[in-house]
What does this fold into?
Amino acid sequence: MIGFKKTPAKLVIIIFLISVFAVLLIYVDSTLNEPESIEEIIISKNLTEKLPDFKNKEIHTVQNGESLSIIFEERNIPLNTAYKIFNFDKNNILSSIKPNDIMEFNYIGEELDSIEIIKDEINSIVIRVSEVVTVEKIEKEIQNISSFKQGEISTSFYKNALDVGIPDSIIMDFAYIFGWDVDFIFDVRKGDKFSVIFEADYSQGEKISSGDIIFAEFINKNSKYIAQRFYDEDQGKQYFNQNGDNVKKAFLRAPLDFAYISSHFNPNRMHPILHKIKAHNGVDYAAKRNTPVMASGDGVISYVGYKSGYGRTVEVKHGGNIKTLYAHLERFNSKTKVGNKVKQGEIIAYVGDSGQATGTHLHFEFWQGKTRTDPVKVELPSAKSVTPSQMKEFKNLVNLNLEKLNKYNLKQDE
It folds into this structure.
């Protein structure tokens, strides 16, 4: 019997490792060189089907001298379709078309589907074109939406109000309403607070009105001012404070848009031209030449002409033995004649430098009887207050809005 030598253990292990390594090499090579899978592309049968027609529109603004027949011809509306439209307009609705009306021609593919004639933000005329043509007036639904905003002055009222989302028109109205008591150029201080509830009309998600203030509050140097919108039975829409007093005074403190007060009321002022003590019994408002000058209040023109050092001058007599004077004017409004009535805010003249003036400005005086008073500091008479018969209704409105304001402030503090 032939005998076999016993294989050493180390050799067995080496042979095993070599075998394992060889197997791994074969596996890796087969994996790396495996042919890429072929992506199966399936062609949809739906591609052969006709795609749906897209909707599109063309806009036309009606011009002077244009008629619907001319517009239809320019838009290549088929004569048969135009005939149907005019024939089915039984109530002559289309006769109201006028310049600046907007016409929307709506198409599905190349086929005319409808025409909308937009008269304004709410009213339209819709012509639907199909086998049966219809012509009808459409009045869009209006939503009245109220908003609440508040903020604090850190730079300027205008900028800070914009920052909290108050529309520009509401900011201007806010400043006008409280402008009888607060000068938004000189009186506003850092830390002053403002709150406003305002409303605007929307139609189909689009804003169609600039908005109107319902309730407003302004805290200026620890003084609180409130304005509540209320429809007074005698005066129409007005704004009143919490006591029912009209926030609109009977007189404007500054009868023009001005840059700054160049000279205050001062009985002991040194005159800049005469160089002697001469009382300055009014206020000088620096403004550009030809800046419009408005009547401070309702009244009657009592003087128009040239008055020595005053230069071109207008005087207006008001109720309550009050007179206002406007001097150093460039020119007068053509309607400014002695005896003519004027309304508050009506333009009576334009800023100049006539008379003894060192520059273009308005010299404004406020007379009570025979006494000239400081128009910046005088307590101006108020317009009519809420009537006693409406006071309860008014108070309920004020309390309701103050409640809303307090609830909002509590939420902010949580």
